[in-house]
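Hi P.,

Sorry for the delay on this. The queue was packed all week, but I finally got your sequence through. Input first:
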Amino acid sequence: MAGFGCGGGAGIACTLAPPWYPLGMRVLFVCLGNICRSPLAEGIFRRHVERAGLHEHIHIDSAGTGNWHVGEPPDRRAQACAQGYGVDITGLRARQFSAEDFDRFDYILVMDNQNHANVLRLARNDAHRNKVSMMLSHGSRGPVDVPDPYFGGDDGFHAVFAMLEEACAGLLETVRREAGR
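Then the structure:
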């Protein structure tokens, strides 16, 4: 799977997920800069997918609505937090969300209301808009924002990790149900 997107391969250039991807399940996580929340979500969801034995059937990537960090690895605090829970996100590189992502992905999970608004501004039709949902709506918290830990301390990253862990488990159940798996 590495090499079909920007997030999965260390330094691999961004390319389209193949249109024939098994089950057609392509999942994209989006935050502001693609260095904190969305790479954490990508890493956590990848672990859930691998443990479920579905890693050959689900393509996973992440992006940011802004372009400030394109090409950079995740924030060192996000990397350390993830590593502490056995999730490796060190090989991920930030990229910016684009309108073409609506055609590349089946699920687009945004971290907060501002990301939601920014992504929807690029949607060209209802089919595109229907792919977008709030990340935490897949957990018990409902469609609320995942707080951005960038300007805080390490505790904020751990709190975000816990929120994303629960939501990723719920998202996997949604994907499995819709795929009939």
